[in-house]
Amino acid sequence: MKINEIKNEFLNKNAQPLRSHKIFNNWNIVTKGWYSTFLSSDLKIGDKKSILLNGHKLVIYRAETGKVFCLDAFCPHMGVDLSLGKVMGENLRCFFHHWKFNSQGKCIDIPCGEEPPKNLNLNSYAVKEKYNLIWVYPETHTDEEVLEVPALEGLSDKEICVKIDDIFYRKCHYHITMINGIDPQHLSTVHKINIDMDINIDNSKSNHIDICLRGNFTTDTFKEKMGSLLLGKSYSYSMKYADGCLASLTMMKDAKLFNRIKMPELHMLFSYSQLEYGKVAVRPIYVNSKSKGLLGPFKNWFKLNMTKAFFKMLQGEDGQIYDNIRFNTEAFLKMDRPVVKYIAYINRLEPSIWSQEKIELG
Ligand code: FES
Ligand SMILES: [Fe+2]
After folding, report:
1. Residues 131, 168: one domain?
2. CA distance 354 to 16
């Protein structure tokens, strides 16, 4: 292997010891949480597709009833990928020897007439459709009722419009890219935005963390002057992290154009998953309240594209950091307190059965 192909985690280990964590930045652990897969519109009735998600091969299919189900992909008989099979009602039949499985992964029919072996293990997973995406949770199908894909702040009871962006890839673990929104120092050094921040972390729930940042625009740079002129003196945004694999961002809270006209809040979500060691997939999703009336389609288009433009601006400035980092947690300052709290929150999350390593939770 060439030296520049070695993953950063393996470099400089004796000279610069790396602190490892039981869950944070640990590629062997997949936490319980909602992971996005295909677009809902790409899975028609009777379609079945396999996907590699967090080191796990899954088959996802849309039954004749319209419901979507997800099972482990390899047939428990001789291991053929079940996405080659056929959807029959709410069941899936393997292509090879026609064993038929129901949506809970139970074998219900073997054409040669023998009984299926005892303890046949084909996991099924909870599935939800939201934001025009199919989401999968690494827990059994029967838990589906108690679990929800997180709603966005202020939008849970509203009609929404959605724009799904293309997946992009990063070389560092997504626990690290998620730090982007709560690292106060880099807002000024990288983005040239000097905001006096007030950070509230509500970590009362174990699997979610809410972070609110507000402050006044300083007016030293051109960007800050423009921001202050257009949107007023103060600035506020909030972030919510769910299960260590989903981040939502609400921007332009209480923003008024020229201090008069209330501007719409802009919302986006980032859904993260591991593709392979050293490669993560990030799916940006832009979501807004749906405007109605004659100008509704134009307003919706404008809000979604403005959200995308904001994100692209920040992404352009940050991208190179997250592809060239060997993150270490050895030298934090007081100012890095939000990051320290966030790492503690990640380390409290629960590993799922997709983890490669079993850990004891203390
Ligand atoms: S491999 Fe699936 S039925 Fe034999
Ligand atoms: Fe950033």
Report:
1. no
2. 31
CA distance 311 to 121: 43
Q: What is the CATH number of the domain that holds 329?
A: 3.90.380.10
Domain that holds residue 92: 35-137
Q: What is the 49 CA–ligand 1 centroid distance (Å)?
A: 17
Q: Which of 104, 137, 170 is the last residue of a domain?
A: 137
Give yes or no: residues 190 and 133 share one domain. Answer: no
Find the radius of gyration of the CA atoms of the chain.
23
**Residue bearing the CA closest to ligand 1, atom 3:** 97
C-alpha 362/C-alpha 349 separation (Å) is: 11
Residues 269 and 325 in one domain: yes
- The reported pLDDT for the residue numbered 78 is 94
Please report the sign of the dihedral spanned by the C-alpha atoms of residue 326, residue 183, residue 201, residue 240. negative
Residue-wise pLDDT tens digits, 290-324: 999 889 999 999 999 989 988 887 777 788 898 88
Alpha carbon 306 to chain centroid distance?
21
Specify the pLDDT at position 157: 82
* 239 Cβ contact list (under 8 Å, min separation 6): 181, 182, 210, 211, 212, 213, 247, 248, 249, 250
Query: Is the CB of residue 96 below 6 angstroms from any atom belonging to ligand 1?
Result: yes
pLDDT digits (tens, 9 = 90+) for 235-284: 777 888 888 899 998 887 776 766 777 777 889 999 999 988 888 999 99
State both tokens at 175. 């626990």
- The pTM of the full predicted model, rounded to 2 decimals, is 0.89
Which residue among 72, 91, 99 is best mutated to probe the pocket of ligand 1, counting the most ligand atoms within 8 A of its Cβ?
A: 99
